[in-house]
Amino acid sequence: MRERVNSGPGRVLIVVYGIFALSASARAAVQIGTKFSEAPAAYLLSALAAAIYLVATVALVRGGPGGRRLALICCSIELAGVLAVGTASLASSSAFPDDTVWSGFGKGYGFVPLVLPILGLYWLRRTARNSGAGAARNVDDLAGHE
């Protein structure tokens, strides 16, 4: 049986990404709208995180080879971002006068921003292995269906 990226535990992943897309978007909108001049880099990073969460959510819902590739890109960028911003925010607190979603490796969000891309990448790998993704094994694969 083939396991799709948007089935089973993938649905939970979609819900969590959707929640983070909404919460990060709302946070970034308020920060940018009310106090942008205080910490523009931090607030723009929060907006970037929100955009990545949104695109990842759509990619996971979409599924299929295109959705899988886009989700892989989003999860990879997200992991790199949370590691880079998390490290920078701890090494130099003056670099980020206000927190971003990824500051302190996502400590303001219970470290979910650190764990989420790892779980996403794991799920994408697991479903790729189970579904034979990457190798056209039947007509559905050749047609681009998952």
How is this structure best described in words?
By secondary structure, this protein is mainly α. The protein has helices at residues 9-35, 40-62, 64-91, 112-131, 139-143. α1 (9-35) runs antiparallel to α4. The longest helix is centred in the middle third of the chain and has 28 residues, at 64-91. It is elongated, with a radius of gyration of 17 Å. The model is unreliable at 133-143 (pLDDT under 50).
Averaging pLDDT over every residue, what do you get? 87
Query: What is the radius of gyration computed over CA atoms, rounded to a whole number of angstroms?
Result: 17 Å
Describe the main β-sheet briefly.
none
Portion in beta strands: under 5%
Number of strands: 0
Helix content: over 70%
The number of distinct helices, counting runs of at least 4 residues, comes to 5
Shape: elongated
Series of H and E elements: HHHHH
Taking the alpha carbons of the first and last residues, their distance comes to: 12 Å
Secondary-structure content class: mainly alpha
Low-confidence stretches: 133-143
Give the gist of this structure.
The chain is built from 5 helices and no strands. It is mainly alpha-helical.
Which SSEs are present, and which pair or pack?
Elements: H1 9-35, H2 40-62, H3 64-91, H4 112-131, H5 139-143
Helix pairs in contact: 1-2, 1-4, 2-3, 3-4
Keyphrases for this structure?
single chain, elongated, 5 helices, 146 residues, mainly alpha
